[in-house]
């Protein structure tokens, strides 16, 4: 994942002990500890984050909008806190101690988060408090060490080993992606395939990342004696902020226009050096280009929220294995490892052969367009996915389907305006087609339906509540047709499991075990509660009637479907199940998400990696940390955008995807216009030019002083006389 750390290659000086080298190379042994630490830390972060959205929905029982909002609020905080980490490291503790102390905070956050996922620890309020506290601590931990670890790795190299340092950052980047890939594969398995406390094992899914973070801390401390540790050198970011603040205040207080001060930053010359002011001007030109960038991250980071939620409503069967919805995120990291060499050694050289000047800013704008196309692809998938979803009823509406378990056809009518919902006769044991919408006069309404069979009519008093779905079960009784209105579940399972319930027309009490779930089925057409059952083939389900055990065939219980199974009377000593599909199974395969991931990853390669290289090349040597802070803030603000839209827009999911795609296209156009007027600089040349200008100004001042006073010491000598 191209922006997993977004750490620019800054490194400090300072005299310190020299680390032993690896096997006759110019690579310090200490970097092995740093790379392993980064792998374990990234495993812990992305492993925890992979299951976070489903944890909010399945364990804390939040709706998808609140889950998405909290997910992106957490992601945003993770990219605001690096500024705090940089301030602590540069101004107070140094990189080594900052990594140690904030890693301890990080570990505590993971442990608190894991404890909050144990059902036996308090009630739902306690779980929410522990979960939020854990996430805040994790955000401060991961964000605080983010600007320190890569720079600390760079510090281990001698100044002359620039090529080795460059390769180290490539290895460092690979460790990030390796940790991400493995964690997004493993933690969903721990969540879904391991059962604990009677359900998905979120405590284990969070506990293993916690253990990896403890290992990361132990490994980093183990290398303590080998590190070259640079002391705090003062925070350049703080100096930049002070200089800008002084210039603004000084200009505001001055009532006169000074033609010698062409730029507003020149008003800081009374207090700050011309070199610092010149370098801030260079940085500000890049930071202005950063203004449109958060919109890209607003789309990119939805892979872990909206796209994961989309995956829960898709078919995840690959024949040999069943993919979990939160595992699909690994595709981004895998594609990054494939796309980076393809673009570097194939795509970009081919574009160069076509004599197209594909500048870094053009690459970034193109990356934005690819991300927008990814959301167009996600929209097409979403439109087809929603065809299997029952749209919930709105205010003053209820949903109704009819299950005719009687011996013959029936007709049902409701004596209200628009009450002719079922104009055709309903056949016996006919699968319901779709839910019909029943318009109510208010929040609740009592309606007496008329049910006719063989010219005989029965009145059924029914009570409906808005925004709920119902099944009207009709069956024969000694007095004719009997009516039973039951509330239905129309919401698909977050994990892709199937919902199952039973109705028994059998004469005995039945005990049925399906997978790990047990159903007590009473006689008299009583409906059992809906329970989630893992998707799979259930050909030999044990059904116990008294001392006799029967075997029934339920067939495939598919992803996301809701089933009602009617158990008919015995036929030659057997119980015959009749399965009805209340909510359609997920019939869109999750492989259809691959195009949107490919487009998004292509956009990431062109946008994120190029953006880092561009920022690095355009910044003065001692200002790269300032641009790193600015870059990380674009990620933070991108997540804020998603948070606002998720909570405030109230759009259908496919419309929200289109909105994001349209906004990013508009932003890419604005960015392209800004990029057209940007002039690329060579930071080394700018440095040389600045030094030459300063020398010229000093000579000019000296010449001017000599002209005004050719005998500078005369006044002094006269005084002595």
From TrEMBL:
Composition bias type Basic and acidic residues, residue spans: 697-706
GO biological process, one term: protein transport
This protein's GO CC annotations: apical plasma membrane
TM annotation in the entry: 43-62, 68-87, 99-119, 125-149, 170-190, 202-227, 282-300, 330-351, 363-381, 626-646, 658-681
Signal peptide: none
Chief site of localization: membrane
Gene Ontology molecular-function annotations: oligopeptide transmembrane transporter activity; symporter activity
Key words, A-Z: Membrane, Peptide transport, Protein transport, Symport, Transmembrane, Transmembrane helix, Transport
Family: Belongs to the major facilitator superfamily. Proton-dependent oligopeptide transporter (POT/PTR) (TC 2.A.17) family.
Protein name stated in the entry: Solute carrier family 15 member 2-like
């Amino acid at each position: 994942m191209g922006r997993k750390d977004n750490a620019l290659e800054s490194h400090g000086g300072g005299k310190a002990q020299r680390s032993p080298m690896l096997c006759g190379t110019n690579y310090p042994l200490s970097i092995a500890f740093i790379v392993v630490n980064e792998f374990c830390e990234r495993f812990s972060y992305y492993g925890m984050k992979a299951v976070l959205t489903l944890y909010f929905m399945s364990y804390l029982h939040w709706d998808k909008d609140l889950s998405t909002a909290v997910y992106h609020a957490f992601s945003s905080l993770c990219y605001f806190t690096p500024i705090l980490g940089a301030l602590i490291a540069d101004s107070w503790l140094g990189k080594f101690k900052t990594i140690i102390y904030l890693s301890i905070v990080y570990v505590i956050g993971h442990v608190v988060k894991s404890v909050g996922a144990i059902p036996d620890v308090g009630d739902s309020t306690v779980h929410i408090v522990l979960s939020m506290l854990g996430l805040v601590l994790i955000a401060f931990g991961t964000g605080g060490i983010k600007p320190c670890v890569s720079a600390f790795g760079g510090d281990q190299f001698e100044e002359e080993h620039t090529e080795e340092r460059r390769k180290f950052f490539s290895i460092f980047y690979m460790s990030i992606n390796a940790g991400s890939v493995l964690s997004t594969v493993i933690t969903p398995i721990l969540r879904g395939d391991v059962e604990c406390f009677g359900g998905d094992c979120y405590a284990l899914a969070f506990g293993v990342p916690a253990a990896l973070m403890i290992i990361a801390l132990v490994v980093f401390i183990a290398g303590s004696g080998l590190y070259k540790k640079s002391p705090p050198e003062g925070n350049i970011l703080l100096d930049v902020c002070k200089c800008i603040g002084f210039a603004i205040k000084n200009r505001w207080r001055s009532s006169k226009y000074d033609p010698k001060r062409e730029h507003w930053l020149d008003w800081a010359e009374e207090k700050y050096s011309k070199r610092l002011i010149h370098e801030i001007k260079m940085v500000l030109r890049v930071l202005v280009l950063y203004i449109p960038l958060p919109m890209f991250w607003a789309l990119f980071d939805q892979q872990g929220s909206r796209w994961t939620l989309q995956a829960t409503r898709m078919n995840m069967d690959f024949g040999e294995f069943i993919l979990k919805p939160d595992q699909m995120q690994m595709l981004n990291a895998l594609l990054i490892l494939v796309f980076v060499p393809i673009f570097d050694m194939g795509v970009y050289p081919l574009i160069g052969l076509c004599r197209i000047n594909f500048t870094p800013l053009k690459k970034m704008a193109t990356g934005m367009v690819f991300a927008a196309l990814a959301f167009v692809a996600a929209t097409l998938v979403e439109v087809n996915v929603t065809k299997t979803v029952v749209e919930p009823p709105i205010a003053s509406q209820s949903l109704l389907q009819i299950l005719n378990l009687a011996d013959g056809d029936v007709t049902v009518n409701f004596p209200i305006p628009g009450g002719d919902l079922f104009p055709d006769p309903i056949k016996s044991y006919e699968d319901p087609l779709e839910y019909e919408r029943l318009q109510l006069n208010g929040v609740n309404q009592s309606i007496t339906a008329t049910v006719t069979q063989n010219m005989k009519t029965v009145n059924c008093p029914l009570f409906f509540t808005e925004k709920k779905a119902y099944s009207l079960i009709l069956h024969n009784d000694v007095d004719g047709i009997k009516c039973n209105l039951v509330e239905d579940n129309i919401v698909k399972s977050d994990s892709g499991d199937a919902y199952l319930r039973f109705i028994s027309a059998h004469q005995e009490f039945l005990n049925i075990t399906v997978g790990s779930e047990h159903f007590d089925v009473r006689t008299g057409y009583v409906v059992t509660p809906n329970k989630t059952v893992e998707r799979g083939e259930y050909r030999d389900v044990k059904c116990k009637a008294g001392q006799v055990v029967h075997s029934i065939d339920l067939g495939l219980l598919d992803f996301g479907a809701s089933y009602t199974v009617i158990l008919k009377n015995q036929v030659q000593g057997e119980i015959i199940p009749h399965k009805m599909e209340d909510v359609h199974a997920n019939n869109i395969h999750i492989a259809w998400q691959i195009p949107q991931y490919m487009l998004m990853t292509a956009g990431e390669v062109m946008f994120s990696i190029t953006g880092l290289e561009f920022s690095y090349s355009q910044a003065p040597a001692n200002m790269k940390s300032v641009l790193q802070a600015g870059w990380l803030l674009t990620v933070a603000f991108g997540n804020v955008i998603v948070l606002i839209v998720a909570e405030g827009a109230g759009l259908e999911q496919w419309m929200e995807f289109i909105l994001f795609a349209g906004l990013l296209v508009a932003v890419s156009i604005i960015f392209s216009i800004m990029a057209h007027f940007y002039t690329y600089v060579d930071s080394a040349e700018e440095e040389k030019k600045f030094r030459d200008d300063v020398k010229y100004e000093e000579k000019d001042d000296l010449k001017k002083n000599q002209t005004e006073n050719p005998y500078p010491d005369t006044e002094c000598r006269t005084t002595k006389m």
